[in-house]
Amino acid sequence: MIEYITGHVGPMMFAALAVFLLIGYPVTFSLGAIGLSFGWLGIELGLLTPALFQALPERIFGIMHNETLLAVPFFTFMGLILERSGMAEDLLDTIGQLFGPIRGGLAYAVLFVGALLAATTGVVAASVISMGLISLPIMLRYGYDRRLSTGIIAASGTLAQIIPPSLVLIVLADQLGRSVGDMYEGAIFPGLVLTSMYGLYILGVTIFAPKRAPALPPEARTLRGWKLLGRVLFVLVPPLALIFLVLGTIFLGVATPTEGGAMGATGALALAMMNRRLTWSLLRQAMNSTAKLSSFVIFILIGSTVFTLTFRGVNGDLWIENMLTSLPGGHLGFLIFVNILTFVLAFFLDFFELAFIIVPLLAPVADKLGIDLIWFGILLGINMQTSFMHPPFGYALFYLRSVSPAKEYVDKITGKLTAPITTGQIYWGAVPFVVIQVIGVAIVLAFPQLVTGNVEHIKMDPSKIHISVPLPDYDRYQPSDAPGGAGAPPGAADQGDSGDNAPPASNPYPSQDEPEPPSK
Fold first, then answer.
1. Do the Cβ atoms of 13 and 307 come closer than 8 Å?
2. Are 189 and 163 in contact (CB under 8 A)?
């Protein structure tokens, strides 16, 4: 029995973690408790030494000193300020007027604004809540299908996970040991492809079921002609300028992602001041929410560090590596298995839990198989995006449920009694977009150039690196006829040495008793 336990501590740790997560115990405490408990067991079984855990404080301080993670609070704060500064409301109102005359115009407006908010906020909660509060009542007012309305709001909000500046990409870059800038560059085209697929789905609905997405009636179109054009330009310029300030400086190499996030947060404050909506109450709420989310990320990362330290100490990483490298199908078999595993786990875990638990175990195997880790990270990012949309545990669905009408209400414009949004309608509305996301994973898997073609890699083969260290030229130090002669090493005359004990040219490593030659 002891021998069996000794040989299977790694799988037992993984199984224990699954049990803790299924019963709903907090993730960070589950990771830490399992890591420490099995660490003690490993010490008792002779698999580990107590000295291993002396590295734990240094690893935790290493997390605190990680400048990449500093981008998380910056982008979170920027998104929360923009959410409350009225930018989302102005965008939805203006773009809705622009697309209003065509069928599905409001749905296109939600998709467009969702992508724009994703490129400025990078926070899923901010995008979903903003568009749920602003656009859902309008879509219900003008006869949009409830499943389509809730589905497009939730799906466009999750674009903040894959379109830079995404918090998801920051964390994945940190876990994969890659540049955040490279992850941002690699995610641009996949994000645009996913957005286009959402648009094609809306187009299909308007063609085959036009009553589900009607055009705005003439009385609802309050802006026309040059007045509409001026409003569009006035509303679009500030967010586009902010996008360039954040992403443009990162892509051009002028600023790091952390510096870009700091500039974005400053720009968000400036926009809020321009709209005269920057108050102490808004600032306090944004700072509190930022502190909570940042603490959430750091504590999960600390717990995963404790778990990973023990897991690797008992050779659990070798167990994972042997299991995954022995899968049939080589690289493709590994990628298919990993994506199916991530898709299934996304039913129960959110992105941060997946990123801090699964990615550190998968990344070394992918690297060993020669898979580009930027491409691998984007694949996982799109797949993890489904974790926000999965019924019944998708966070985007919870966000939308919190701002959707749960009871009948009287519309303030039409005065009509409007039926509530049910949870089932939200779940069924998300299903088509989850399928689209899965298709997006397949497209990126089949066409890696969508990611790698936009990233300038500096490839280096370690086996071809040659380091040349010149040895001292001892031919200069030949014995002479007189003590302390020109050919003798310095100090020979002081020691009364004739120079015969000087190291010969054939011996490049003098003994400790012999004086070393001066450096050139």
1. yes
2. no
Give the tokens for residue 421.
């949004």
255 neighbors 64 (Cβ within 8 angstroms): no
Backbone angles phi, psi at 338, to 5 degrees: -65, -40
Collapsed DSSP state (helix, strand, coil) of residue 410: strand
Is 103 among the domain residues?
yes
3-state secondary structure of 418: strand
The answer to whether residues 278 and 85 touch, using CB atoms and an 8 Å cutoff, is: yes
Place of tokens 């500096």: 458
Structure tokens at 494: 């002081």
* Interacting residues of 161 by C-beta distance below 8 A, sequence separation 6+: 118, 124, 167, 168, 351, 381, 384, 385, 388
Tell me if 291 is assigned to some domain.
yes
Helix (H) or strand (E) holding 198, with range, is helix 180-208
Q: Are strands 409-410 and 417-418 parallel, antiparallel or unpaired?
A: antiparallel
Inter-residue contact 69 to 174 (CB < 8 Å):
yes
* Tokens, residue 448: 């890696």
- Structural domain for 177, as ranges: 68-296+395-452
Written as six digits, the tokens of 430 are: 């998300």
pLDDT digits (tens, 9 = 90+) for 267-318: 889 888 887 888 888 899 889 988 988 888 888 888 888 888 888 888 887 8
Same domain, 139 and 169: yes
Selection from 164, 84, 92, 96 nearest residue 131 by Cα: 92
For 371, the 3-state DSSP assignment is coil
337/384 Cα distance (integer angstroms): 14
Distance CA 48, CA 310 (A): 8
User: Based on the structure, what is the number of domains in the chain?
Assistant: 2
Neighbour-count burial of 519, counting CB atoms closer than 10 A to its CB (0-12 exposed, 13-18 middle, 19+ buried) = exposed
Same domain, 518 and 402: no
pLDDT tens digits for range 469-518: 555 554 554 554 444 444 444 444 444 444 444 444 444 334 444 444 44
Do 391 and 120 meet the contact criterion of CB atoms below 8 Å apart? no
